[in-house]
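Database export, one record per block. Field names are fixed; values are copied verbatim from the stored entry.
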Amino acid sequence: MSPARQVNRSPHKERIARQSRSDLTLRSERKANSANAARKKKRDFDPQAFLATIGDGRNFVHFPKKQTIFAQGDASDAVFYIQTGKVKLTVVSKTGKEATIGILGERDFFGEACLAGQPLRMLTATAMTDCELLRIDKKAMMQALHREHEFSDLFVAYLLSRNIRYEEDLVDQLFNSSEKRLARVLLLLARFGKEGTPESVVPKVSQEMLAEMIGTTRSRVSFFMNRFRKLGFIHYNGGLQVHSSLLNVVLHD
């Protein structure tokens, strides 16, 4: 700036300029603090604690091992959240053939199709172990999703990850060998790739169920399970232990 222009600039304009810079700095700091607070709130958000306090329309339910939670054809009127335990999802064809399409664990939702207007259950949900669940009526769930944005974001992210999982299952069935499909299912049961520490012992799953999940015969599952055990990928010791080395089967071309 030239000396002439500096002389011509009034003290009033200088004050306005200083105030503008001060306001801009203050707005920037507030924006940064707000963003940091939002990130902290998202990290601290506990869906289980939130769901436990949404008021009417939700209740805690216990299902012992092997008990049916809901059956295919039942009224679809609630969403379930798994606090503890494992849940198996199955579907039965018109000819009576049953297929296992998923096994869910802690912090998973199921039965969410009711939110999209599905009047009847398309699947059967069964407790694989003793389960503690939170049952949330459709209306209460919709209200919670509208009221709490962090919960809504978490739930949408969960649905997207579930959709990706189904797409991966389809690709797996179309292009991978039954040995790779079995290895992938075992890793998923052990929750490798999920947040937290993978489970060293997976819930008891019969070879018949594993055969249903990967679309092969029980004899083939038995053959591959014996191979995995001899190679040290899995281990039987009061339950099935799955080691991360099993990833070599999935990643090997």
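Remark 1: The chain has three domains: 3-44, 47-172, 177-251.
Remark 2: The CA atoms of residues 229 and 236 lie 8 Å apart.
End of record.
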